[in-house]
Amino acid sequence: MNFADLNWQEMMDATVATLQMLIFSGLFTIILGLPLGILLYLWGRSNSIVIRVIYSVLSFVVNILRSVPFIILMVALIPFSKAVVGTSIGVLGTIPPLVIGAAPFFARLVETALREVDRGVIEAAQGMGASTNQIVMRVLLPEARPGLLAGVTITLVTLVSYTAMSGMVGGGGLGDLAIRYGYYRYEKEVMIISVVLMVILVQLLQMAGDRLVRHFTRK
Question: What's the domain range around 108?
Answer without folding.
Answer: 10-216
